[in-house]
Write a structure and sequence with these properties.
The complex is a heterodimer of chains A (about 200) and B (about 100). Chain A has about 200 residues and is mostly helical. Chain A has six helices and no strands. The longest helix of chain A has about 50 residues. Chain A is globular. Chain A starts with a helix and ends in a 15-residue tail after the last helix. Chain B is mostly helical. Chain B has one domain: Orthogonal Bundle (Helix Hairpins), CATH 1.10.287. In chain B, about 75% of the residues lie in helices and about 0% in strands. Chain B is built from three helices and no strands. Chain B is elongated. The chains are: A mainly alpha (about 200), B mainly alpha (about 100). Chains A and B meet through helix 1, helix 2, helix 3, helix 4 and helix 5 of A and helix 1, helix 2 and helix 3 of B.
Chain lengths: ~200, ~100
């Protein structure tokens, strides 16, 4: 039951981390800070779970927490249209695609090795902390916080997409790109195995 | 909350995405790590746009990032399915046809 103890320890630490983040937010910025802590712990907890879990299905579902937490952060930043699009596209689209990929490939429960995962997380976090300390010493954060909050309406986004001095070229390019990507994905995924190169044949390629 | 809180969250999410990319031996995990990295970039775009000036640039960039992520996920999953049919594995290190 070593594995079970590991799971219990991990999720207990995650829960206490989330509570600590919410408490810190509540102390520094009131109810908005508490909501920030809630969504931030959803985001980061989902990411941690994705690395931690052995089963790919659990990792994919933990990514749902990450995406929903990011949508909550967008709402706190006054961008509710993007939050809605985030939930529609990431949770409703990309996550389902990933789950299809998971179910069409075999599970490998011995693939996650704890030393490698721990070492990777420690190395990445150390590198980011080093760079972050260098950046934090240079940036003047107080300047940014005096500006008034900016809300986004969906009409503003639609107008910005279609105005000639706006993003109309990028908008059309995105439409072409999405069409090409969808056709290409259907073409790649529909090919029969007999159309592919036969690797078992002698000198087949 | 100030700008720095959002930047810190985005940085940690970016680090988790990189860690997911480099520590797991499965193509699906690589895709998940890429999605986390794109999400952290989106948080940065929207947060900097919210706290710096009244333009729309950051918000529109975030929308285009989501569009690109959707296209990338569709094509990448198609490629993963084909790689699995061809090689019978989803480990990135086993896909080494050009080495022979």
């Amino acid at each position: 039951m070593d594995l079970r103890k590991q799971q219990i320890a991990f999720y207990t630490a995650l829960l206490f981390g989330a509570l600590a983040a919410m408490g810190w937010g509540l102390k520094t910025a009131g109810i908005q800070g508490a909501m920030f802590g809630f969504f931030a712990s959803f985001t980061l907890g989902g990411g941690l779970m994705c690395i931690w879990e052995r089963s790919v299905v659990r990792s994919a579902f933990s990514l749902m927490a990450t995406f929903c937490g990011v949508a909550g952060l967008f709402i706190l930043l006054g961008h509710d249209f993007l939050a809605m699009a985030q939930i529609l596209i990431y949770v409703g689209g990309i996550l389902v695609l990933i789950l299809f990929g998971v179910m069409l490939t075999p599970p490998d429960l011995n693939e996650r090795q704890l030393p490698r995962v721990g070492l990777g997380v420690v190395a990445v976090v150390g590198a980011l902390a080093f760079v972050g300390a260098k950046v934090a010493a240079v940036v003047n954060w107080a300047q940014a916080e005096t500006l008034p909050p900016a809300e986004t309406k969906a009409e503003q986004i639609g107008a910005a997409f279609l105005r000639a001095d706006g993003y109309v070229i990028a908008f059309e390019l995105a439409a072409v790109l999405l069409t090409v990507a969808l056709v290409a994905a259907v073409y790649i995924a529909r090919r029969k195995p007999s159309d592919l190169i036969d690797l078992t044949e002698e000198g087949g390629y | 909350m100030g700008l720095e809180a959002y930047v810190v969250v985005a940085t940690i999410l970016f680090g988790l995405g990189i860690a997911c990319l480099i520590t797991r031996r499965n193509v699906i995990y690589v895709l998940m790590g890429i999605e986390m990295i794109l999400n952290s970039a989106n948080i940065n775009f929207v947060a900097f746009n919210r706290f710096n000036g009244d333009g729309m640039d950051g918000r529109m960039f975030a929308i285009f990032v989501i569009i690109l992520a959707a296209a990338e996920a569709a094509v990448a999953l198609g490629i993963v399915l084909n790689v699995f049919q061809l090689f019978g594995t989803v480990k990135p290190s086993d896909v080494d046809l050009l080495r022979e």
